[in-house]
Amino acid sequence: MRLGLKLFLGLFLIVGIAAFFVMRVFVNEVKPGVRQAMEATLVDAANVLAEMAAADLKAGQIARGRFVQDLARAQRRDPKAMVWRFPKRSLDYRVTITDARGIVVYDSMGQDIGRDHSRWNDVYRTLRGEYGARSSPETPGDTTRTVMHVAAPIIDPDDGRTLIGVLSLAQPNRSIDPFIAASQRAIIERGAWLIGLSALIGVLMTAWLMHGVGRLNRYAQAVSRGEPVPPPPPRRDEIGDLGRALETMRRKLEGKAYVEQYVQSLTHEMKSPLAAIRGAAELLQEPLPEADRVHFARSIQGQEQRLTETIDKLLALAEVEQHGWLQKRERLAVQPLLQAAAEAVAMRAQAAGVTVHVQVADGLSVLGDRWLLGQALNNLLENALAFSPEGSIVELSAARVGDAVVLHVADRGSGVPDYALARVFERFYSLARPATGQRSSGLGLSFVQEVARLHGGRVTLANREGGGAVASLYASL
């Protein structure tokens, strides 16, 4: 199972289970809570009615007195009320009055007159001076529909102490069942929204965490493949700390391997010039004709220049390769960039009898490092000049291709042999110059290749129709 899925399931289960149990508690508490509120209302109403019925009960005219008449008129009223989306068109109260012995003397429904209610919990406890209430089936034998009864003592209005009867106020629980069901449904709906919102937050949190972990994973995979990549963007958390630690470790490991590789490369390339210098120096220790002495002295000087060029270009290439990404990036106009490169090789071109021609459309620009692109163009121009015959033209141009700018350096020299086309970008690989037969350090095109990579592009070298070669450096816009 993927780490992101584990994180999401863990967070969702924790929040979901907590929300479920909280919802269950609320749903289970709605019914008793509403019924307790109804009971409190019945208590108030029963005591008010008991006070109003006291005079008629003491006078013995409870069945035909003012209280009964008023109550009958009230029960015939239509409240025309809308209580929280539910219409209420009648009164649900049932009033029962018993005398001091518990015998029913009045029933608003006319059913229980003359019956003994002294054993019913509401009447029984009230006759004893306690709070009396009970819940009984609305229909005998049906426990699903119940009625709540709350009793209040009827006190003699003359002395204010003597108990002369009990008034029981009843209301069927079905009258509040719609409110209970609606409340429970609202809690469940809101709970479902809460769980859904928790799931969404879990997805977002997991995605945020996995975005950082994924970047770190892709970075580690690229490093393991030996690809030069920038470190993950900085973060102020443990993932950011891990990314910085990995980048530090990569730099240390690559630095060690890089030094070993370059020491081996430099040692290999220095053997041949040093051997030539050593041989020429030994011969110069012997008496030689002047012409031979000059020849061997020039050989030493040429090998020294080759060593110096190799070391300089190795240092430049090492600096570029050590950067997995551009350290400096700016918007550069292509026209001045190409013109500066042409001017940098103008004296060498004049000495070789070659003309450098610059052609680029106005307004063309590229995003990159001015110094690196300039050095890359210088390397390509120097190669073109070295292989161009006297009187020829080296064309330096630029064009937009898709989302990239392509810098072309084209010459009319001898071109590149087929066997060398696949190897020209290898480090230390070079071809003999037509004019002198000497080889360069073989690092120039490797340098150009690294510059192209840093600019999100590539470099190619191909032969031209009609003779010569063209090098193309692609850089992103």
UniProtKB/TrEMBL annotation:
Domain (HAMP): residue spans on this chain: 207-258
Key word Membrane present: yes
Localization per Swiss-Prot or TrEMBL: Cell membrane
Listed PROSITE patterns: HAMP, HIS_KIN
Single GO MF annotation: protein histidine kinase activity
Classification via Pfam families: HAMP, HATPase_c, HisKA
Annotated keywords: Cell membrane, Kinase, Membrane, Phosphoprotein, Transferase, Transmembrane, Transmembrane helix, Two-component regulatory system
Membrane topology of this protein: Multi-pass membrane protein
Domain Histidine kinase: 265-477
InterPro entries in the cross-refs: HAMP_dom, HATPase_C_sf, HATPase_dom, His_kinase_dom, HisK_dim/P_dom, HisK_dim/P_sf, Sensor-like_sf, Sig_transdc_His_kin-like_C
Annotated TM spans: 7-27, 191-210
Catalyzed reactions per annotation: ATP + protein L-histidine = ADP + protein N-phospho-L-histidine
SMART domains: HAMP, HATPase_c, HisKA
Protein's name according to its UniProt entry: histidine kinase
UniProt source species: Stenotrophomonas oahuensis
